[in-house]
Amino acid sequence: MAEREHVRVAVIGSGFGGLGAAVRLRRQGITDFVVLERADAVGGTWRDNSYPGCACDVPSHLYSFSFAPNPEWPRNFSGQPHIRAYLERVADTFGLRPHLRLNSEVRGLRWDGDALRWEVDTASGALTADVVVSATGPLSDPKLPDVPGLDTFPGKVFHSARWDHDYDLRGKRVAMIGTGASAIQIVPAIQPEVDRLTVFQRTPPWVMPRADRKITGAERWLHSKVPATRALRRRLLWGIRELQVSAFTKRPNELGLIEALAKAHMRKAIKDPATRARLTPDYRIGCKRILLSNSWYPALARPNVDVVPSGLKEIRGNTLIASDGTQTEVDAIIFGTGFHVTDMPIAQRVTGASGTTLAEEWKGGMEALRGSTAAGFPNFLTIIGPNTGLGNSSMILMIEAQLNYMADFMRQLDVLGGRIALSARPSAVQEWNRGVQQRMERTVWNTGGCDSWYLDANGRNTTVWPGTTAEFRRVTQQVDLAEYEVLRPPAGTDGTSGDRLAEEVAA
Ligand code: NAP
Predict the structure, then answer these.
(1) What is the residue range of 253's domain?
(2) Residue whose CA lies nearest to ligand 1 atom number 12
């Protein structure tokens, strides 16, 4: 049988997390790695989400890598094509192309406890890796609600993250299901084209004004000629958001002030008090992600738009039936119903040291040490792992913190030397998560009176980090070896001593 290819590191995914990991590995002098990508191009969620109006609601100078600044961002909140192009440039600039394995969906990962490595089965062949860095991201697998009758709908159906650009919406009766961050960008973009647009709003979002504008030529010139101005801009954007954190995590009542601003924002576009009442949330702002848009309410006020203040319950032929009984006939349904976040799909494909999958281990809720490593899954790190999400700032900051942790993890493996693996101690994982969950009790995400994708099926918040990005960066700066077991191969398999050692390493 032919020898399988072996690499030091297999990175899964080529979005911000996977490309960032690749850059970081190269910077550390590690070149023996591959980036496994299921699609035929890099970009992750910024490749998949190409819906009309798609843009980032975090300012671009903050929503980009610190090591790859872009003085040319065209707007405060740049659009998807610019962000996608930025990631393509990162792949070129940092020499990542030779590492990329496109069309290589990871079908399964199995830990080999004798050889101390991962067996990786991909759509383009099998390989083994000492370390796996899973950067599949929380916004990669679309979630469709289980609506009875959907299979009988004779018209067009697609999800916001799988936009069918060949389908012409002009003159069509369209249903938009959901009122999350994706839907509020789609609705204003397609409203002028369609004949009728019916928005199914199960829960109204809080929407704040969006301070978007073009970044002027003079600013761009300055940012490219005097890099300190670009750094200052980034620091200000970061600092403002760090100051907001305590209101989300410790004093949700302070957010009442922001609700007043959001209500005033709605009043400007929606004149009818009964409509305003239907669009006003009954939970604390920040409990779900705060949305930013200047065009959402004006679009809802257009004569060809209806809001059904209820979820989609059933479909009969062309007719959509809402939970409140409203019936609407449509030609096309667009699901803006989000992603599989708390039930991370890759977890079903990862089989750890005791033969169980990560999904099985996480039945009661995802948990990992410092957002990265799970007990029983040696040499396996997750980028954007459990409780590393943010409610109000740039995920790139969290990704970079996790990359620091990954880099130190690799360093520790080298320092310890030989064929070796680090496995998070169950006690360390538990202690870390106890702390996280304790802090979560006071946060707006848990106390604000809403249901959101931050919470899993058990109502546990396994997605958001209950602190500042600075704190997360601090606690992921280094791997604390006392939190890990050091595994070495059993006797005879690589010429080293005795039974498998689980070395107690002093901190
Ligand atoms: P989402 O926030 O999970 O929103 C899903 C929406 O679908 C919710 O409004 C939900 O209602 C609704 N829904 C689910 N089932 C329904 C049903 N049967 N009938 C009616 N409505 C139903 O998904 P998303 O909008 O795709 O956004 C996901 C995340 O992606 C965001 O929170 C954000 O982190 C990211 N994102 C970011 C940007 C950006 O600008 N940076 C843009 C888009 C997305 P309930 O609220 O009642 O559950």
Answers:
(1) 150-211+237-335
(2) 178
